[in-house]
Known about the structure:
By secondary structure, this protein is of the alpha+beta class. The chain has helices spanning 29-49, 84-104, 110-115, 119-131, 148-161, 163-176, 181-188, and strands spanning 53-65, 68-78, 136-137, 146-147, 178-180.
Amino acid sequence: MSVLTAPASDVLLDHRGNERPTFESGLTYEQSRLGLAFHEAGHAVVAMAYGMHVITSEVIAWFPDADRWGVTGSTSLEAHAALPWQFAAQSAAGTVAQVRYFMTYGLWTPDIALSCAAEHDREMAIDVLADFGHRLGRNHVPTGGKSWGQVRGMARRRITHLWREIHAAAHAMNETTVLTGDEIAAITGLTNPPLIGGAA
């Protein structure tokens, strides 16, 4: 496992350049790291199942000093082949997979719920869909659009069918830190679609 003393500054920023919120979860480093691996595996596996090309998916961990640590993650993908609501569902899939991990392992608490919110995923989905004329509501169903709750439901259905694959990818990612999309495909038996406009 690779461990940093500090991540690159852009890792802690959202797509708008704002600093992401941080949370104290009360978990051990190992529990938090595996939770982030499930989060990123949720993004990657659901994206792949929807026909998106996954480039990499990784857990990023750092220790600012001997008694403190932080974990986050990143999944890079090429989403041009995705339908708008499929893109939104893969954005929600990280949180949904992470929540299922914590509930399955008996770790769920209100503090952990806050750490799983991943509002940056929701806000990025809202902005990306808006660029293409689609309306995604935070807590309501806009006219002609969908709510974040609805796309979370789409993600939950996919994750139910793909839990074995997400579980396998998450544990492999936790061990190796970074997986390519092709490595995730080999681990899960899924197909990583070709990169549009170039070789995969």
